[in-house]
Structure formats: structure tokens, C-alpha cells
Amino acid sequence: METAEQVQVLTAVTEAGRDTHLITALRSAPGRFAVVRRCVDLADLLGAVGAGLGQVALVSSGLRRLDRDAVDAMRRARVGVIGVVSAGDAAGRERLAALGVDHCIPVDAEPSELAAAVLDAITAAQSSAPGDGRGSHRVVPDGGRSAFHPEIRQRSAEDDADPLEFVERGGQRGQLIAVWGPYGAPGRTTIATNVAMELAMLGTSTMLVDADTYGASIAETLGLLDDAPGLAGAARMANQGQLDAIALARYARKVTPELHVLTGVTRPARWTELRPAALEAVWSQTRSVATATVVDCGFCLEEDEAMVFDTDAPRRNGATVTTLASADVVLAVGAADPISLGRFVRGLADLREIVSDLSATHVVVNKVRRSVAGAGPEKQIGAALERFVGVQPAAFVPDDPAALDLALVSGRTLAEIAPRSAARHAILALSRRLAGLQPPPPRRRPTLLPTRRS
Q: Which of 101, 182, 381, 427 could in theory staple to 83 by disulfide, Cβ–Cβ 3.0 to 4.6 A?
């Protein structure tokens, strides 16, 4: 890579004398490099980036308060980030790598090595798109057995995740399933919790996560205490580059041997704790320890916050947008009544702007009933969705208020409390498809043969 213009470099190397060596090396390096600002701390560095200075930043591994969110902010500004470590400082390299810094150089790097690293980091920053973690992975049942304890409403406080179990499971590349639906309570949490339980009962190690920044409710739905840090705690650890399998186990709750839960924020005002950059690291870790990660997302897909503020302000909907963009499969949930279907059709248009691969989106029509959709509701709703948005639902979940109310009061899923429910059978069939299994054969009613008259 050659350029006639000077490459603007920012430095934030806190150790005395080290930035002087780097500046001297840049001056003698092949190419045209200029240090436009020597930053004294992270706030100074982010201020320079926000002012439009610099194409690449040299940061030391010991820079105070450097976290994954700061690295992501620089990347969104198209500023490359290079870590500077002492010779043989393996711990420093590991910390920078955990924060998302892909380029590292020793503090005594040769001018040619430093120049090559700067140009590589700039190229990566210009071509990268933060938050794009899509893949094509399928859930594969990994053995195991299901278990549940329907005796009490509140699940046992001793059911914490086993760190050793997470370490042993680590290294997989699991599937991320995002459950989204428009405003109006179409049943996102109901579908997410029951799909997660069905996958677990099929023998798939599953992590259920509540990432709804407006109304997290998975803890209450499953009868768990909602005062645990859950996802917010895992996100804080990820933002500091300290989230691994052992740390994740500290915040996950064990519901069954194959199902673990990261509960959501207890108050909507705490949405700022779920930063997109941190959640990307959380999803990477949950993929590693679970074959399937099921995430209950918020309803709102707007990104207007970036238009209102001139600074790099937190994005309330960033958690949902980042999760949908990173998901391998999206379950788009809409209720079956006319008002909800109208919202659902408009919401799918917004969803298309985030999820480009519509083949990975499965439409789930929930609360299906004849009283609002008429006779043959599945056929009528399917025809309407085909006409207006060009999709066919992957599942129709019948409205079963008696079974759902019993599950909610008991703090259990349909599989645990009402296994013969029609809604449960529809969700089971959907979960089997997500797990790559054939749906169960339809149940046949016994036929009565006519009796012969003597």
C-alpha cells in the first residue's frame, strides 16, 4: 500500500519513553507518517478520534480503562488500532486480543515492521464492518438428557452453572438464534423460552439469553431470581476483555443439565450496560460453550440515536441490532390478530435492512385462533403474508391460554407443565427443524370400523 499523503498516527503509550522510540521509528520508516497527537490517556485518545484526527492509534497494553467498547468506537470511526507490548509480554498480548485488537507490535519494533503494521491496521479498519458475525451453522444434538423439577415456583438458588462443565464444552462453534418480533407483545419471550427448553430436551446444550433492553422477563417466566447480574455482568466482563468460560459460568443459571440462562437487566434504565461491542464478545463465548444460543431480543430496530447526537452516544437498540446481524437464524414472531399482523408486516420491512439473508429468517405466527382469523386461520394468514411480504410461515403456534397461564404461574415451560398442549407440539416441531431433525409424525386418531348387522 502506497500513498502520497501522510498517514496520521495517534499514540496513547503510557509507559515513559516508549512513545519516543515509536515516534523515532516512524520518522525513519519507509513511507510518510506523521504523529498528529500524543495522547495522555484514553479520554484524550477518544476525543482525538471523535474530532476526526488520526488513521491509526498505537495503544499500550497497560493503557488505563481501555476496554472493548473503546476499541469498537475507534473501529467505527475507521481508525485502526495497534497494540504496543513489551518484548515477551504474553499477558499483554492476550489482554489486547481479548479486547479485539488484532495487530500487536513490540515496543522496540524495527521501522519497517512498524510501518507494515500501521498500513495493515488501516486497511483492516477501512474494510471491516463491526457487528457482522453471521455464519452458516446448524444445531446438532450433542447427546445428554433433559431434566426438570416442577415441584416449586422458584427454581433452586443452588443451580448455578458449573465452570468445569463450560471449560470442557469450550471450543465449539454453536448456532446463534435470535428471536425478534414487533411491538405489541406477539410472544417473543414465550417462543424463546419454549424453543430453548425443547432444544435442551432434544439433547442440545443450549444457552438462553434475555437481551431485551425494554422489558426483560425471562427470569420471571422461568421462576428465577431476577437480582442476579446475568447478561449485564457478562457484558461488563467482556468489555474489559476478561470474559472466558469460567467467568461466563459465574453469571449463568442452570435450569436443566442442557439449559443455562443469562437473565436480562432488571430495570429498563440499565440498558446502557448492554453495549454492542461487548455483546459480540458474549455471543462468541456462548457459541463456544453451547451448541445453541437462543436470544430474546427487543422489539425496536431504529438507530435514530446516532442521528440525534454528534458524539458516539450509546445506542439503546444496539443490543437488538447487533444480535440480529450476528445471528445464524432469526425467528420473526408475529401474533395472528389483524392489528398485530399489520405491525408484523411493517416490522419485516425494517428487519430486511439488518438481516440481508432472508433464507435464515423463519416466520413464526403465534396465538393462532379462529375467533379473529376465521375458519382455516393458517391458510388465510399464510396467503396474506405471501401476498404482502413474500414469505411463508415456518410455524403456526395455536393460542392456548389455559396452558400458557399455567406455565407462567408455575414458572415452567410448556414441555414441563403441559406437554400435550397444542402450542407445545407446534413449538416442538419448530425446534426439531432447528436441530436438524425430522418433525414427529402426526398423531392419528383411531378409526372406528362400522359394525355389521347380523
A: 101
CA distance linking residue 262 with residue 289, whole number of Å: 13
How many structural domains is the chain composed of? 2
Residue range of the domain that includes 23: 7-127
Residues of the chain with pLDDT under 50: 1-4, 129-153, 157-158, 306-308, 310, 445-449, 451-454
What span, in angstroms and rounded, lies between the C-alpha atoms of 307 and 323?
21
Q: List, for residues 34-77, the tens digit of each pLDDT value.
A: 888 899 899 999 988 988 889 999 999 989 999 999 999 999 89
Task: Single out the residue of 51, 77, 66, 127 nearest to residue 100, CA to CA.
Answer: 66
HEC per residue, 281-313: HHHHHHHHHCCEEEEEECCCCCCCHHHHCCCCC
HSE-CB at 83 with a 13 A cutoff on CA atoms is: 26
Any bridge partners for residue 81, and if so which? Answer: 57
In this predicted model, what pLDDT tens digit does every residue of 195-237 receive, in sequence order?
999 999 999 999 999 999 999 999 999 988 766 789 999 999 9
Strands ordered across the beta sheet of 361-368: 253-256, 259-262, 206-211, 292-297, 175-180, 329-335, 361-368, 395-398
Kindly report the CATH number assigned to the domain that includes residue 233. 3.40.50.300
Q: What is the pTM of this model?
A: 0.76
Q: Rounded to the nearest 5 degrees, what angle is found at the Cα of 25, between the Cα atoms of 24 and 26?
A: 90
Residue count of the chain: 454
Quote the radius of gyration of the chain (alpha carbons, Å).
25
